[in-house]
Amino acid sequence: SLLSYGIVMQESESTYVPDPNKPQIKVTLSHDVSTHSLEYPINSTQTVKWDSSNISEDPEILIQVYKLFPTIPEPTYLDVWSSPMTARLSQKSITFCIDPALFSPDEWYVARVSLATDDKISAISDPFCVK
After folding, report:
1. Can you tell me the distance from the alpha carbon of 11 to that of 22, in angstroms, rounded to the nearest whole number?
2. Partners of 88 in the beta sheet?
3. Residue 24: which CATH number?
4. Closest CA to 24 of 114, 129, 125, 127
């Protein structure tokens, strides 16, 4: 199932230890307070939060949400928005609506935050499900 695949992906990420001196971004999602789960109803809002280390100034960042398809050996990511949202690193979060025209129930998604000037400096959230 896609849920178990997402968990496997999470475990593989936790074994990777980045160089603490290199620029890094960390991404988290707001949890549903009532259930503490990563399940969000259509038309609800989702907040993507980020933190960074070893990044000077306040660069522009790009936020994109991808629909996850459990393909083998790696999942396939499809852009949800035609172009990424933009923000400044110092904003620390951005909130968007789970629009029924773009999101489908019982599908899984991830959010990715990257520097606009260097796509390699990026992070992907845990998968979340739309209900």
Report:
1. 22
2. 60
3. 2.60.40.2840
4. 114
